[in-house]
Design brief:
- By secondary structure, the chain is an alpha/beta fold.
- It is built from 11 helices and 19 strands.
- It has helices at 20-27, 36-39, 58-68, 87-95, 108-116, 155-165, 238-248, 265-272, 286-298, 335-342, 356-369, and strands at residues 5-10, 31-34, 50-53, 74-79, 100-103, 124-127, 145-149, 172-177, 185-190, 203-208, 255-259, 278-283, 305-308, 323-326, 348-353, 372-376, 379-384, 387-392, 396-402.
- It is globular, with a radius of gyration of 26 Å.
C-alpha cells in the first residue's frame, strides 16, 4: 500500500512476540512513533528508525506529527490490537482508513479470557481509559463477567471502592498484570477486602459481579424503580417512564433531547439502553440540573449532558436530535414549534402532560401532524382500613409522532 502508515500492535512480550510481518514493518520504518514504554521494547539493532514518543495530549498532536514526517515510512506502535480501544481509531479518523496498514496483536482482553477460561463472546468490556469511573455502574448485573480496561496503577483500588460504595462488595476482583510478558502476575480478592492500593499500570481487571443482598435491583429494561432516583417529586414515574421510552424507541448511536429534565430519568434510561446512545437534558432549575448529574453518575451514564436554562432558548446550538421528549414546559411560547423544527425527517417526538391546558396543545398537534394520542392511567393497590383498594395516579396524556419527509 503506497504511502501507508504501518500501525503495529505489540504486547508485553515485546519483539519476541511479534510475527514477521510486524517486524518487517518496524525494521523498514524511517520513523517509529509510540509511547516510551512501547519504543523501549524494540531492539535498536533491528529497528534503526528515528524514535518519537507521543506528546500529551495525544489526539490533537496526531495531524501535525504525521504531517511533519510526510514522505517518510512511518510505523506507529500500539498496545495489543490497535483497533480495540486503541490508536487505530484515532488514526483512521485523522488520515482515513485507506492510508493505514494495521498489524494486530492479541488484545489484553483476548489474553485475559485465555487465562481465565472465559468465552470472549460472553464477556462485556468496559474501558475506563479517559472515561469516568461511574461509567462502570451501568454494566453491573448479578452473575455478569466484566473485563475492565484500567488507566493507571490506582484504577483497581478505585474500582474496588466503587463496588463497595454501590452495593457490589462481594464481587470477585482479579487484576491481570503484564499479560503475555515475563512479569505476568494475577492478583485476586473481593471488592470488600481489596488490599492493593496500587498495581502495575499495565493491567486488565476481571469482575465476577455479585450484588449485596440489600442493594436495589436495577434491570436492563426501561422502567427502573423510582427509588433509584434522587428527586423532589419531579420524576416521570416508573410505569409511565417505561411506556415513554417504548414510544421514543432508542437505537444505538442516537441522540435524545430530554426537555424539562426534572430528575433526568428519561435521558438516563435512554442512555442505559445502549452504551452508544447519547442524551442532552435541558432543565431550567440549577438545583434540579445538579440533581440530574448526580443521578446520571449513580446510574452509570456520566456522559449525559445537562444544559441549564429555559426551553426553547436553551435549545439553540444543540446537535440535531434523533428524538425529543418533552416532559415539562409545554405551554412555554414557541417550545413545540422549536422542537418540531429541530427534528429531521424520521425523527420522533414524545410529549407527556397531566394538565388540561397542555393536553389541548397536544390534541391540536395530533390533528395537524397525526401520530398517536393516548392516555396512560396507573392505579396502585393500597390499604383501605382493613381491606385493599385502588389509588389512581393522575392520568398522563401522551402524544408521540414520527416526522415525515414532507414536513421537513
Amino acid at each position: 500500500m503506497n504511502g501507508a502508515i504501518a500501525v503495529v500492535g505489540i504486547g508485553a512480550d515485546g519483539w519476541d512476540g511479534l510475527p514477521e510481518s510486524s517486524r518487517r514493518a518496524l525494521r523498514t520504518a524511517d520513523v517509529l512513533i509510540g509511547a516510551p514504554r512501547q519504543l523501549d521494547l524494540l531492539p535498536g539493532d533491528h529497528c534503526p528508525g528515528e524514535r518519537i514518543p507521543w506528546p500529551s495530549p495525544l489526539r490533537p498532536a496526531v495531524p501535525g506529527l504525521l504531517a511533519a514526517h510526510r514522505g517518510r515510512a512511518i510505523a506507529v506502535l500500539a498496545s495489543g490490537d490497535p483497533s480495540f480501544y486503541g490508536i487505530g481509531r484515532t488514526l483512521a479518523e485523522t488520515v482515513g482508513a485507506d492510508r493505514l496498514r494495521i498489524h494486530p496483536h492479541p488484545s489484553s482482553v483476548s489474553y485475559a479470557c485465555a487465562r481465565l477460561g472465559w468465552p470472549l463472546e460472553a464477556v462485556e468490556t468496559v474501558s475506563l481509559v479517559a472515561r469516568p469511573l461511574a461509567a462502570l455502574s451501568a454494566a453491573l448485573h448479578p452473575g455478569r463477567r466484566l473485563l475492565v480496561l484500567g488507566e493507571g496503577s490506582e484504577t483497581p483500588a478505585r474500582v474496588a471502592a466503587l463496588l463497595r460504595d454501590t452495593g457490589w462488595s462481594g464481587t470477585r476482583v482479579r487484576v491481570l498484570e503484564q499479560l503475555g510478558g515475563p512479569a505476568e502476575r494475577l492478583l485476586d480478592a473481593t471488592a470488600a477486602d481489596w488490599p492493593y492500593e496500587r498495581t502495575d499500570a499495565l493491567h486488565v481487571l476481571a469482575l465476577d459481579c455479585v450484588r449485596d443482598p440489600d442493594t436495589l435491583r436495577l434491570g436492563a429494561a426501561p422502567g427502573l424503580p423510582d427509588e433509584a432516583y434522587e428527586h423532589d417529586g419531579q420524576l416521570t414515574k416508573r410505569y409511565v417512564r417505561a411506556a415513554t421510552l417504548a414510544a421514543l424507541g432508542p437505537a444505538p448511536g442516537e441522540l435524545l433531547w430530554d426537555i424539562g429534565g426534572g430528575s433526568g430519568s428519561i435521558g438516563i434510561e435512554w442512555m442505559r439502553t445502549h452504551r452508544s446512545c447519547r442524551a442532552v437534558a435541558v432543565e431550567k432549575s440549577a438545583e434540579r440540573a445538579a440533581r440530574i448529574e448526580r443521578n446520571a453518575d449513580t446510574l452509570g451514564v456520566p456522559g449525559l449532558r445537562v444544559v441549564t436554562g429555559p426551553a426553547p432558548t436553551a435549545l439553540a446550538g444543540l446537535e440535531t436530535p434523533d428524538a425529543i421528549f418533552i416532559g415539562g414546559g409545554l405551554t412555554a411560547p414557541g417550545l413545540l414549534d422549536a422542537c418540531w423544527d429541530a427534528l429531521p425527517a424520521g425523527g420522533r417526538l414524545v410529549a407527556n402532560t397531566v394538565t388540561l391546558e397542555s393536553e389541548a396543545l397536544l390534541a391540536d398537534r395530533y390533528r395537524r401532524h397525526g401520530g398517536e394520542l393516548i392516555r396512560l392511567a396507573v392505579a396502585a393497590a393500597v390499604p383501605v382500613g382493613g381491606f385493599t383498594g385502588w389509588r389512581q395516579a393522575m392520568p398522563v396524556t401522551q402524544w408521540s409522532v414520527t416526522k415525515g419527509s414532507e414536513e421537513g
